[in-house]
Design brief:
By secondary structure, the chain is of the alpha+beta class. The chain is built from five helices and nine strands. It is globular and about 45 Å long. The two termini are about 25 Å apart.
């Protein structure tokens, strides 16, 4: 987990240096301080898939390159076998598995996400990103907070929302929650 966050940070730093992007510009794009962005580059802070998506769209870089260091190659179809999608762990309680990492010029980014329960009433940090998001709960119970609205989703329930609103998710009931997440 820590290794993948550090590798993502190294790729972000390399991108910034190769494209000669001012630190202030990329920090502003991510809506964070320059100090926080440098922590992301050094692997000390979680980059969030949403920030990475924003960077990839803005600079015309594949999200897969930032997440996994690999350029997608397929243009007519791409199959992801069960358990075989490229993964990135965000902290020890949040894991993304890309379901279309090898497909070039995707219009959406589908992920299989697993969120593990946090101790007590602790919540994940809220974040926001451009676009829209669709989430379908496959297993467990997911609590979704959008701004100050709290919604509980059970297996088979789904939500579609404007992801530019601050939002977070957490697993309920001392059980991991797995859901399909499509970022549009």
């Amino acid at each position: 987990m820590e290794g993948s966050i550090k590798q993502i940070g190294q790729r972000l730093k390399g991108l910034r240096e190769v494209l000669n992007i001012p630190l202030s510009e990329i920090a502003e794009l991510c809506n964070i301080s320059e100090e926080h962005y440098l922590k992301i580059e050094s692997g000390e802070a979680d980059p969030s898939v949403y920030r990475l998506s924003k960077i990839s769209k803005h600079y015309g870089i594949s999200l897969d390159v930032l997440l996994f260091g690999e350029e997608p190659h397929m243009s007519s179809y791409f199959v992801t076998r069960k358990g075989q999608g490229l993964c990135v762990d965000r902290r020890k309680d949040y894991r993304y598995q890309s379901l279309a990492s090898g497909f070039k010029r995707r219009k959406v980014d589908p992920f299989l996400v697993q969120v593990d329960p946090l101790p007590g009433d602790q919540n994940h940090n809220q974040n926001a990103h451009e676009g829209q998001e669709f989430d379908l709960v496959i297993q467990g119970t997911l609590e979704v907070t959008i701004v100050d609205k709290v919604i509980t989703l059970e297996q088979g329930d789904s939500i579609y929302f404007d992801s530019s609103s601050m939002h977070s998710m957490r697993a309920l009931g001392n059980q991991s929650c797995q859901f399909l997440c499509i970022v549009i």
